Amino acid sequence: MDAGTFRALHRYGAVASVAGIIAAAVAFAVGGADSAVGLYLGLFCPLGAFYFVGADLADGSTYRVLGEELLRGVAWYFLALVGWSSVVADAEGVAASPLTVVGLPAFTALGVALLLFAVRRVTGLDLRVASDGGRLLVALTGALVGAFAVAYLVLAEGRTVLLAPAYALIAALSLAVWWRRRASSDAS
């Protein structure tokens, strides 16, 4: 296959994935929360959208960084599926619905991908694991895993809600320390 064929496949996959997400929303609206078609499309079409839209955007030069972060969104989507399914399965106060089972992981992964896109635009870091920005990537991955752990402790285990702001403060302080160290190493 040549490069043009891959571009065409990525564009077709992007359109099909977005159409599938819309079809999942319609299936849940028409068939209710137990819609098998909605669940299938709702779980797999965001995965396809992250990959195909990301690959299509990463191919060009204008939106390359956004495309790379959407491609990385495939991993964030998997992490969000595991994290939110753990929370929803054990938390009595969070009902399993299309929004919590399908929507929360997709929106979480999209939010993380857009956050990393913004970080790359602001800092100019490449965020490759074997680079200086890779430490930030690893720290943000750990912060996301920690956030799911805090959500699980608060929602499923019934621990105090004060864990959430305490964790947010610790994560912000850790980011500030990283930023300060990066600035001091750039100056020297």
UniProtKB/TrEMBL annotation:
Q: Which UniProt keywords apply?
A: Membrane, Transmembrane, Transmembrane helix
Which parts of the chain span the membrane according to its record? 12-31, 37-58, 70-89, 95-116, 136-155, 161-179
Query: Which superkingdom is the protein from?
Result: Archaea
Q: What is this protein called?
A: Uncharacterized protein
